[in-house]
Amino acid sequence: MGDDAVTAQAIIQSLASGLLMGLLYGLIAVGLALIFGLMDVTNFAHGEFLMIAMYLSFFLFAFFAIDPLLSAPLVAAALFIFGAVVYLLLVRFAMRAKANAGMVQIFTTFGLAIVMRGLAQYFFTPDYRSIPQSWLGGKTISVGGIFLPEPQLVGALVSIAAFAGLYFFIHRTDFGRAIEATREDPGAVALVGIDKNRVFAFGWGLGAALVGLAGAIMAVFFYIYPDVGASFALIAYVTVALGGFGSVFGAFAGGIIVGLVEAVTALVLPPSLKSVGIYSVYLLVVFIRPRGLFGSM
Amino acid sequence: MDKDFAARRRRDLIIAAALATIAALTPLFVKDVVVQNILILTLMYAGLSQSWNILSGYCGQISLGHALYFGLGAYTTELLFTKFGVLPWFGMLAGGVVSALIAMGLGYPFFRLRGHYFVIATIVIAEIGLLLFHNWEWAGAAMGITIPIRGDSWLKFQFLRTKLPYFYFALALCCLAWFVTWWLENSKWGFWWRAVKDNPEAAESLGVDVFNSKMGAAAVSAFLVAVGGSFYAQFVSYIDPESVMGFQFSLLMALPAVLGGIGTLWGPVLGAAILIPLTELTRFKFGGSGRGVDLIVYGTLIVLISLALPRGLLSLFSRPKKTGAAR
Asked: Which residue ranges traverse the bilayer (chain B) (predicted)?
């Protein structure tokens, strides 16, 4: 009886942390889904965008003692500019490729990822860094015997707020409608005076800003090192694919599923195998629905 | 037109024979062990990339998970060798067969997927393989397998005093992969693959067996890559999950073909001949510092070539199509 209660509590505990982490995964992945939905391009440097956002938080903390929570909007703004510049300087040209367009896009962003990793190693060294004393770091809240780490809790709230904001933005503002229109027919929007390139650059900026926000929160409770993006990038691709490529709100659902599956797997398998659960669910879902859960069939 | 095509194929074969002969003679002049090492890796990756190119280039199914087959080749060979004393030659064959069978087994569900869903599925399955080997105690788990020294002979496929036999084996592997590609290019399979790549629906309606075309390409591709993995294990004489099944192998198989010219006969060889020495030299020169200069050089190269030459470096040599048709 007592054992059952303990087990039940352990299960609820891990589901709760899984849910929080899942919301954060959704926030990490949504930028990828946004960009893909807008222009059919997968950013293979998405993990590295997360990595520089984490470093940015770290340095703002280390040099100016700005708490990551305060600097998060700053980091998001910096990433917005970075994303737009990447589009204007690289992706724009990759999209003009006359042959092997898919490969060119994959390997242009992949090459960018490798360069970013190299630059991070060069300037920041391969050392693992962390933010030792932030407002939230290491603190937990207890709700009915369930312990919720504050950084993940705030991350989950930020994620929900970001998705709500994104929903409002896409459906209620002119620029959001311009994005929707461009994604449906990039040729036709030119006729009504929408500059496709501006919309795409904005989309890349917005996508990068969202992953920047995620990075700022991750910096509070995760080690920061040049390769940190790689493992989260694969989770982000799985999240986006689960939701259905291009579906922004599919990423939200996909993130939650990934977080919960990861938590459940960690209960039944050795911790080193926890990603196997996520990967298996991905395979299972696409085998049944080859375009993801919320992708158009 | 047919005559032209036959002439081109004959010319390709002659060029390949000439290049192979020149390559076979290089050890007479190149005595430096570091350079020999780079040559061995270049030949190996040329062969691997050529094999990758069969599925991903000709048949158009972009795989970024071929490290799985490379690792399976290495592990099958070494597990049979260390646990049961089976000679690496048989292990190599067994690894190839195991990989081909697994590739076909995976093909059943995988080949229903399109585009990014397929690419991510291939990355994910290789990661699952990597994690499973990490946790498989009998196969050495994260510690891996140190290959015991049992001799210094072709029979045991172990060489202690010189790297030359490895060089010749890598050359043979590269030639085999090239020849298989050359041969298949003009077979029923080759035509099917190009049709599947260009437009699967149209191919299907013209009577091409799309599914079996993909299965065939996957089996040949996985078999050859596994032979490469088996060779690599003997060459480095120590394997662990990361060092034979890591994502970097999937990437290093794809990149030469992409840089040289994907879906072409010569692309992988050309790409490997440029990329692998460059990778090894930058790593040799800067990599030790752990400061990432090698990554910066390498990544920049990938971006520039992708943007400037979307058809790969090979497109620099090809004449415009019109002159060919006019003759």
From this structure: 54-75, 87-111, 117-133, 166-184, 215-239, 251-276, 296-317
